[in-house]
Amino acid sequence: MTDSYQMFPSVVTAVEQLTPLIKRFTFKRQDGENFPAFTGGSHIIVKMNDKLSNAYSLMSNANDLSTYQVCVRKDVEGKGGSVFMHDHCVQGFQLEISSPKNLFELAQTGEKHILIAGGIGITPFLPQMDELAARGVNYELHYAFRSPEHAALLSDLKQSIHAEYIYSYIDSEGSHLDLNTLIGSQPKGTHVYVCGPKPMIDAVINTCNQHRYRDEYIHWEQFASSAPENAEAFTVILAKSNQRIEVMADQTILQAIEALNVDVECLCREGVCGTCETAILQGEAEHFDQYLDDDEKASQQSMMICVSRAKGKEITLDL
Prior knowledge:
The protein is of the alpha/beta class. The protein is built from 7 helices and 19 strands. The protein has helices at residues 81-88, 125-135, 154-158, 179-184, 198-210, 253-258, 294-299, and strands at 7-17, 22-29, 42-47, 53-57, 68-73, 94-98, 101-102, 112-118, 138-145, 166-170, 191-195, 218-221, 234-238, 243-247, 277-282, 285-286, 302-304, 309-310, 314-317. The strands form 4 sheets. Strands 1, 2, 3, 4, 5, 6 and 7 form a 7-stranded antiparallel β-sheet that branches.
């Protein structure tokens, strides 16, 4: 089972509008102490209030722990967290910040690392590029976005030590990233990382597979559920109370349970934080989280009830 996050009462110290849809937020602990150390690819949970919390990639300098920084893209079709951040989290706003966790770590081996970002997916790569530069290994960032006004952080990157390793692609100007050429031309043993919209992630993974990259050389992150839209309803049995709950096609297990006032801890609701990990007593899960590794998913010992579903018509959980 997952370790609990440590939560730190914090305050927003700066808010910057980077693009029409993206703001950068800087946080400081209320007790004045430093935040915990982190590595490139780490995320934190930002808890805005009792009902809203989201996972965001850390993009700040890992050598300066006096503050944490994240970028938030406003998504009016989302769960409400990003809209709340944009509309209410002004300088001086108090909230809670979790300790960091890393599900998108840089590989410790490999002479070359290709980083592919789409839109807001640029954020985890900032501290990762700093790490790669410190290692003295070969790396490149390939950054695709819709139009110049949506190029969050590009001007900062072009003035950094990473400038000569950055390649940008602007859809509105007819500049497109050719994944087949990029991935197919890399030397053996190159690690490929991608963060961005699901279609981009899928395309990168498929292209790597076509060029016979081994699984351990393909890395991705997306803070969104990959659960299918055409899901089927099923029954979940809560073993401790012997309750049978119908989970509708458009519901998650977590939502169905909460409707009955059963309290389950879940910070992210995106299959990322691991706080809602629940033991499976009978049946099998169809896993859609990013927290469990492939072996853990195959073992069918536990599941993330915020995104994952029953593989059959019924599943029994240790709740």
